[in-house]
Amino acid sequence: MNSFNLPGFWVVIPAAGVGSRMRADRPKQYLRLGGRCIIEHTLDCFLEHPQLKGLVVCLAADDPYWHDIPCARDVRIQRALGGLERSDSVLNGLQHLVELGAAEDDWVLVHDAARPNLAREDLDKLLGELADDAVGGLLAVPARDTLKRAGADGRVLETVDRSVIWQAYTPQMFRLGMLRQALAAALAAGVAITDEASAVEWAGFLPRLIEGRADNLKITRPEDLQWLEQRWRNF
Ligand code: CTP
Ligand code: MG
User: Fold this and answer.
1) Atom of ligand 1 nearest to the CA of 15
2) Please, which residues have CB within 8 angstroms of residue 13's CB and are 6 or more apart in sequence?
């Protein structure tokens, strides 16, 4: 599909995490990949899209790194304050979109700062498949390996049917009003929310799974960064 026929959309990039599993000297979104910071590559996935209405990045209050990267001077990028959990950061970002004039039924895509390898074809697939959807959905990847449920002693309890298991990726695409309400209500109820879809599910809706590429991985551990460095070098 031609990108110009896709729906308009806003983007929220939560980037206020500390990256503890990465065990680096700074939050992982500021580690170098192919000569630039990871977050710069992530922002690039969206900035040139013709249907982009605006983009908000959620940063930690004491973030000393953002101001030193070229993106900090890009007028297309708005900033919001991060929160204690990812869901708090996202909620702040959504609030900022309201202040920018986003409407209740506008589409919002939430995408991890630490996921720099989103292909344009996946982004356009998500936008195209969900353009007329009543709920919204997310990029996801079907489980590949045989799955085991573990018991307390580290032994296999059973083999799980892999055909119904998917890994949740981002972007996750929902209407601004519905997502804000679902996230706020889930947080107020003390429900553990690890992605936007879980808040939407908790509110009683059924997000659609859109199959995406497995290489849209989130940099979580050192080996993820090594893997992506290697892959980009060989391109
Ligand atoms: N994030 C955020 N605000 C938080 C926590 C996380 O904006 N309070 C962001 C991270 O910056 C990241 C995305 O949410 O872009 C996905 O979270 P995750 O991979 O868990 O990142 P970290 O929390 O930074 O890493 P870790 O869990 O290993 O500490
Ligand atoms: Mg985390």
Assistant:
1) 11
2) 39, 42, 43, 55, 56, 57, 58, 93, 110, 111, 112, 113
Return d(Cα 185, Cα 204) in angstroms, integer: 12
Q: Which of 79, 86, 194 to mutate to test the pocket of ligand 1 (most atoms within 8 A of CB)?
A: 86
- Extract the residue ranges of the chain whose pLDDT is less than 70: 1
For the CA of 220, the closest atom of ligand 1 is 19
CATH number, domain 3-233, options 3.90.550.10, 3.40.50.2300, 3.40.50.1470, 3.30.2000.30 = 3.90.550.10
Q: Are 59 and 29 in contact (CB under 8 A)?
A: no
Ligand 1 centroid distance, CA of 235 (Å): 28
Q: Which residue minimizes the CA distance to atom 10 of ligand 1?
A: 17
Domain boundaries, the chain: 3-233
Give the Å distance between the CA of 187 and the centre of ligand 2.
Answer: 16
Whether residue 116 has a cis bond before it, omega within 30° of 0: no
Stated pTM of the model:
0.97
Contact 112, 14 (CB under 8 A): yes
Which tens digit of pLDDT belongs to each residue from 108-118? Answer: 999 999 999 99
C-alpha 95 – ligand 2 centre gap (Å): 21
Amino acid at 212: G
> How many other CB atoms are there within 10 angstroms of residue 136's CB atom?
22
